[in-house]
């Protein structure tokens, strides 16, 4: 992973970072790196996720999913970090085995998806670190029933990925289902490089060793200076830009196959750094598509954001045929890849010309190794940002209120949060 902070410097953008400010910040990066290393050495909760390139066991993952190697499709039932990592890999890497994700409880969508799946040839991967997430368990019960109704033995097609405790672990034990363990100390949004993200990838035949090697390469680049570590450079610059007013981070990959990566990044950034009244709001965008929808705001709107432009340097290309159609000849003879790269560089320059901070993130190509680098790099960037901001990066206490309210509304217990729902202030216009 390569990170270019040039367009985030104060002689280009506002908010922007002076070289002196970056040098000053670099002293804090050294301390933060030490803290992170200590957390890794002691496998502390959260920091342990940055050890996964060494601690993940790809052979054990392959062995566990071997019974599903013949699957035509793999259906992951999970939400948040229990789906987004696997979905990022599945969307980025082509495979003969289709991957589907049930990470919401929209009944129309669930029914349409289940009706379209070859259930008898589908491997079902139920993923929940806690084993208690309502959406995941509800969807699992619905999938199980659909398999029963289709005369498919669900216990034959299902494996679970979960923690040592919880409903899902108990279900796996009672039904004797193959079960993968979510490693200790690894929060959901930091679990793509573990069983959580790699089981689906293994069933799809992806080279999970290469993913972990790429992540390992990025781990080797973590150092006591942002000038030696692309991940820390990205994390430190994002933090410093937030400090100066960039409250939004628009993640804009220039590859359709990285669109889900932007969703994965949104959870990582929002759930890790959105605390104590601060945090950068991740916005999901896609290049070149959103040049034609959001760029107007990114260029001419408030100077309250940074834009992160991500691209692979190499990609399979497709020529644009020659044409003598009026005004189009300039396109003929070049390629879609040339056009996309021109759009990338033009958009980057257009933001700089408007004084809007942006950061370039490049990977070699979209393959297992480079994805491992990118995912690990963004995780390490997030951990460093959390250290500099002084927030508890690895917890997400604010999500519990809504869970209690929903559970109470469904009769799943007595929760004051559910009462508050009934007390809603209304001003309805219809
Ligand atoms: O893997 P689990 O425990 O089902 O949790 C799913 C997701 O829900 C959250 O806990 C938020 O509600 C995320 O942190 C997590 O990734």
Automatic annotation (TrEMBL):
GO terms for cellular component: cytoplasm. Transmembrane segments: none annotated. It is found in: Cytoplasm. It holds the Pfam family PGI. GO terms for biological process: gluconeogenesis; glycolytic process. Pathway: Carbohydrate degradation; glycolysis; D-glyceraldehyde 3-phosphate and glycerone phosphate from D-glucose: step 2/4; Carbohydrate biosynthesis; gluconeogenesis. Keywords: Cytoplasm, Gluconeogenesis, Glycolysis, Isomerase. InterPro entries: G6P_Isomerase, Phosphoglucose_isomerase_CS, SIS_dom, SIS_dom_sf, SIS_PGI_1, SIS_PGI_2. GO terms for molecular function: glucose-6-phosphate isomerase activity. Its EC number is 5.3.1.9. The active site is at 271 (proton donor), 292, 403. Catalyzes the reversible isomerization of glucose-6-phosphate to fructose-6-phosphate. Belongs to the GPI family. This is Probable glucose-6-phosphate isomerase. The lineage of its organism: Archaea, Methanobacteriati, Methanobacteriota, Stenosarchaea group, Halobacteria.
């Amino acid at each position: 992973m390569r990170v270019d902070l040039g367009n985030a410097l104060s002689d280009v953008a506002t908010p922007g970072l002076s070289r002196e400010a970056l040098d000053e910040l670099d002293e804090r990066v050294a301390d933060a790196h030490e803290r992170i290393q200590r957390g890794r050495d002691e496998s502390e909760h959260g920091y342990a996720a940055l050890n996964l390139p060494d601690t993940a066991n790809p052979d054990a993952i392959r062995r566990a999913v071997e019974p599903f190697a013949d699957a035509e499709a793999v259906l992951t039932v999970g939400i948040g970090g229990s789906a987004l990592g696997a979905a990022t890999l599945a969307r980025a890497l082509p495979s003969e085995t289709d991957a589907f994700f049930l990470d919401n409880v929209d009944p129309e969508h669930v029914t349409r998806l289940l009706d379209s799946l070859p259930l008898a040839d589908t491997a079902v991967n139920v993923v929940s670190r806690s084993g208690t997430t309502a959406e995941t368990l509800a969807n699992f019960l619905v999938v199980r029933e659909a398999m029963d109704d289709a005369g498919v033995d669900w216990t034959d097609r299902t494996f679970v990925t979960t923690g040592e405790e919880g409903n899902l672990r108990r279900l796996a034990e009672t039904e004797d289902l193959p079960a993968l363990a979510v490693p200790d100390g690894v929060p959901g949004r930091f679990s793509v490089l573990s069983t959580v993200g790699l089981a689906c990838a293994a069933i799809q035949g992806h080279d999970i060793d290469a993913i972990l090697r790429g992540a390992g390469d990025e781990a080797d680049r973590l150092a006591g200076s942002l000038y030696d570590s692309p991940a820390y450079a990205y994390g430190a610059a994002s933090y410093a830009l937030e400090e100066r007013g960039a409250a939004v981070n628009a993640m804009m990959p220039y590859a359709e196959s990285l669109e889900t990566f932007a969703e994965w990044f949104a959870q990582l950034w929002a759930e890790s750094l959105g605390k104590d009244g601060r945090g950068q709001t991740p916005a999901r965008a896609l290049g070149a598509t959103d040049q034609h929808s959001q760029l107007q705001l990114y260029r001419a709107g408030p100077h309250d954001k940074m834009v992160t432009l991500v691209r692979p340097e190499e990609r399979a290309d497709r020529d644009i045929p020659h044409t003598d159609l009026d005004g189009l000849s300039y396109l003929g003879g070049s390629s879609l890849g040339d056009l996309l790269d021109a759009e990338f560089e033009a958009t980057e320059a257009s933001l700089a010309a408007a004084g809007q901070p942006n950061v370039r993130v490049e990977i070699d190509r979209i393959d297992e190794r480079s994805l491992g680098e990118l995912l690990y790099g963004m995780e390490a960037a997030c951990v460093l940002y959390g250290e500099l901001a002084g927030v508890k990066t690895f917890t997400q206490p604010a999500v519990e209120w809504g869970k209690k309210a929903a559970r109470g509304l469904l009769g799943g217990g007595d929760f004051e949060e559910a009462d508050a729902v009934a007390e809603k202030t209304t001003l309805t216009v219809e």
